[in-house]
Design brief:
Helices cover 50% and strands 13% of the residues. The protein has helices at residues 20-34, 53-67, 82-95, 112-123, 136-139, 145-152, 167-176, 190-195, 206-221, 225-245, 247-256, 274-287; strands spanning 3-7, 38-41, 72-76, 99-103, 130-134, 157-162, 181-184, 200-203. By secondary structure, the chain is of the alpha/beta class. It is globular and about 50 Å long. It has an eight-stranded parallel β-barrel, surrounded by five helices. The chain has a single domain, classed as Aldolase class I (TIM Barrel, Alpha-Beta Barrel), CATH 3.20.20. Bound molecules: ligand SI3. Residues 7, 40, 43-45, 163, 185-188, 202-205, 239, 243, 247 line the site of ligand SI3. It catalyses: aceneuramate = aldehydo-N-acetyl-D-mannosamine + pyruvate. Keywords: Carbohydrate metabolism, Cytoplasm, Lyase, Schiff base. Its EC number is 4.1.3.3. Belongs to the DapA family. NanA subfamily.
Length: 288
């Protein structure tokens, strides 16, 4: 399960329906061009929190059908509706996904006991392994070392997708839990996380920048920090431009220049203006 995973985008049509052909193209591009080790399906980048349960299942099915056993698959099933999360966990396990992941429950101020119960409930009666999806900037849930340790006591919880700029906590986690999988979640901090010996990374920009991400990770693992830093610099030039232009929309537009029908974003996200679409195409020309 180690390595680089693309936080997979989903192609939607203008009405917000899943565009199956476009989704399959995104998957193929990630496997054949970006050459990532796996896909993280229905995460933030997949606009998961904007779609229905039926659409989530449709996406899980299409992706598994397209991938087969070519690369590893992690299914993000986390939801504020705990029955939905449990149902999706069973659904993807039956489909043959390699692991599940679940975002920490958000919006309401859940205490740690409630968070722990959420994970244990999702895993009840499902024969799979789970990766915690921690992204405090979006969820407001900041767990400390001891709390991660308590969650890790459930042997089915095999790791964490760590999307936070807290390198002190990341180092402490790495040191305290050498056998758990730690994935870096911020693509612009991949080198710094790799130096701390993470097991892999999961990122949105890998949809278009997967090759550079792989180089950064591999070079850092081999101790070639200067070379890795050069590539992280180019990567961050690109990420800065993407973030300024509209994260998911710009990545979709860049994919379109490569013949991949990445479609539209779902409302309430807004589509790119023509000016920003031109900018995205320029970025594709420069960086892809
Ligand atoms: O679930 C997911 O789609 C992710 O893995 C998200 C991932 O951590 C990304 N975060 C968000 C909020 O999209 C990052 O890859 C992020 O887009 C990137 O580092 C740019 O800031």
């Amino acid at each position: 399960m180690k390595g680089l995973y693309t936080a997979l985008m989903c192609s939607f049509d203008e009405q917000g329906n899943v565009n199956e052909k476009g989704l399959r193209e995104i998957v193929r591009y990630n496997i054949e061009v970006s050459e990532v080790d796996g896909l993280y399906v229905n995460g933030s980048t997949g606009e998961n929190f904007l779609i229905s349960t039926e659409q989530k299942k449709q996406i899980f099915e299409i992706v598994k059908d397209e991938v087969g056993d070519q690369v590893k698959l992690i299914a993000q099933v986390g939801s504020l509706n705990i029955e939905e999360a449990s149902d999706l966990a069973k659904f993807v396990t039956d489909l043959g996904y390699d692991a599940i992941s679940a975002v920490t429950p958000f919006y309401y101020k859940f205490d740690f006991e409630e968070i722990k119960d959420y994970y244990n409930t999702i895993l009840e009666g499902v024969d799979t392994q789970l990766i915690i999806y921690s992204i405090p900037a979006l969820t407001g849930v900041n767990m400390n070392l001891e709390q991660f340790g308590e969650l890790f006591e459930n042997e089915k919880i095999i790791g964490v997708k760590f999307t936070a700029p807290d390198f002190f906590l990341l180092e402490r986690l790495r040191h305290a839990f050498p056998d758990k999988l730690i994935y870096s979640g911020f693509d612009e901090m991949l080198l710094s996380a790799s130096v701390l010996n993470v097991d892999g990374a999961i990122g949105s920009t890998f949809n278009v920048n997967g090759k550079r991400a792989k180089q950064i990770f591999t070079l850092a693992q081999g101790g070639k920090i200067d070379e890795a830093r050069e590539i992280q610099k180019v990567t961050n030039d690109l990420i800065e431009e993407i973030l300024n232009n509209g994260l998911y929309q710009t990545i979709k537009e860049m994919l379109k220049t490569q013949g991949v029908n990445a479609g539209f974003v779902r409302k309430p996200m807004k589509q790119l203006t023509e000016e920003r679409a031109i900018k995205a195409r320029e970025l594709a020309k420069k960086y892809l």
